[in-house]
Amino acid sequence: MDACNALIVDDEADIRELIEMTLLPLGVSCLSVENLGEARLLLKRQPFSFCITDLRLPDGSGLELVAHIQKHHPSLPVAVITAHGNVESAVEALKLGAFDFVPKPFELAVLRNMVATALRLNRGSEGRPGDNRPVLLGKSGIMAEVRALIAKLARSQAPILIHGESGTGKELAARLIHLSGPRADKPFVPVNCGAIPEHLMESEFFGYKKGSFTGAAQDKGGLFQAAQGGTLFLDEVAELPVQMQVKLLRAIQERAVRPVGAQVEVATDVRLLSATHKNLAALVQEGMFRQDLFYRLNVIQMRLPSLCEHPEDIPDLAEAILDRLSQESGGAHPRLAPTALAVLRTYPFPGNIRELENILERAFTLCEGQVIQAEDLLLPVVENRLRSSIPVPETSGGEPAMEPLISPTDSEPKTVPYPSAPVVNDLEGYLESLEKAAIMRALEASRYNKTAAAEKLGISFRALRYRLKKLGLD
Ligand SMILES: Nc1ncnc2c1ncn2[C@@H]1O[C@H](COP(=O)(O)OP(=O)(O)OP(=O)(O)O)[C@@H](O)[C@H]1O
Ligand SMILES: [Mg+2]
Predict the structure, then answer these.
(1) Which residues pair with 56 in a beta bridge?
(2) Residue at a domain's end among 365, 392, 419
(3) Ligand 1 pocket test: which of 135, 137, 171, 405 has the largest number of ligand atoms within 8 Å of its C-beta?
(4) pLDDT in tens, 16-31
(5) pTM, full prediction
C-alpha cells in the first residue's frame, strides 16, 4: 500500500499529538501545523492523502482552509474538528465541501472510521468498474446536472435530502450516490419509514437484546447495524413518527445506537440519505417534523425533476425500458410506432418515470406483433396543458417552480414550497379523472358532437365511443 500522510491543522499541541498517535497505528504519518498560513504553504509544497483541521485557528477559520482546498486541491479529502454539539459549523463545513467532521472530544472509533473513508476516497476506489450499476438515464441538460451532482455528492459524507415527485428516481439516485462513493462495497440499506409499525420502529432501527420483550429470542441488530460502514436510506422520511424522530436525532448526533434492552451504546458509521415527496420544510412549520432533525438530514438538498420538465428524454427512457422488458421476457423486442412515441411525448406523466415504465409494461404485454401502437399505450387522453389546469390536492398550485437542483439550506427552514406530487394513492382513478375531464371538455367545446370531439382529442370516433363507454359517460 502507498504511504499515507495526513496534514493536521490545530493550534493546540495536545490535540495534534493525540491525532498523530491515533493515526500512526493505521499506517498514516502526519505533518502537523498550527495555523492557516503554514497549512497553505505545506499544501503548495507537497501532496497529502487527507487533511484534518480545527475550526478556530490563530489566523482565521478552518472553514477558510476547507474553501481553499476545494478551490486548489479539489481531490484532497478534508475533515474539520468541531466542538461537540456545534451543529452549525459542522453543517457549514459539509456545505463548503468538507467530506466529514470529527466531533470533540475524539472517539477513537469515530476518528478511525473517518480516516478509513478518507483513504478510500483518496485511492479513488469508488465506483468499481465492471459491476452492473444501475444508470440514471437522460441526455437532457437537467439530467446531466443531476448526474454531475450525484458524482460530486458521492465523495462527501454529508447527509442529503432528496426530494421530487413520486416516480422521479429518488431511490435510484440514492443508490447511485452510494455506489459512486467510498462506501460502495458496504451495504446500502433502504428503509421505508412509512411501512414500519410505530411500536416496532425502535427495535427495527437499533436492534434489540435477547429477552428485552416477548418474542426477542436472541440478540438482533437493527437497520443501523445492517448499514454499518455503508449507507442508510430513509425513504418517505416525512412519515417518521415524532417520537422516533427524537431517537434518530440522538443516534445521528452520538454516532451510536442503543439496542432495545441494552445497557451500552454501539458505535455506528453510517451515511444517511433521505427522500420525501412531501414538503418537509412546511411540515416543520406545522410542527409535524422536528426542526433539529430536519436541519441534520437536510444539509444538502437535491431535487429530481419531474418527467414533464425533461420530455426530450422520453424516447431514450422508453427505449431502455423496452430493452429491459424484452431481455426479461427473453422474447421479441417491440418498437414504438412513431405515433405512439409522439403521444408519449405530450403526455404529462403525473407518475413520472415509474408511470412510463408501467405504461410500457402494459403495452408490451398487450401489443401483438413487433410494433407498439398508440392504442396499445392505453393512455388517458389529456390535453397538453391539462395537468396544470386541474386542481390537485396538496400542491401549492400553478406551474411547478423551477428550482436549482442544489440549494444551500439555512438554519431557518424556508417557506418556499417545492413542487410536490399530486398525492396519487389511486393512480388508475386519478388517470381516469384526467381522461374524463379532457373528454368532457372536448364534448362541451364541440356541443356534444362526438365526431368533432374525437377530432379535437386526436382519436378516432370509435376510440372515443369505446372510452365513453368505459368511463360510464355514454
Ligand atoms: N433517470 C432514470 N433512468 C432510468 N430509470 C429511471 C430513472 N429515474 C427513475 N428510473 C426508474 O423509475 C422507477 C422509479 O424510480 P424510483 O423508485 O427511484 O423513484 P422514486 O422517486 O423513489 O419513486 P417513489 O416516490 O414512488 O418511491 C425505477 O424503476 C427506476 O429504476
Ligand atoms: Mg421511492
Answers:
(1) 61
(2) 392
(3) 171
(4) 999 999 899 888 999 9
(5) 0.74
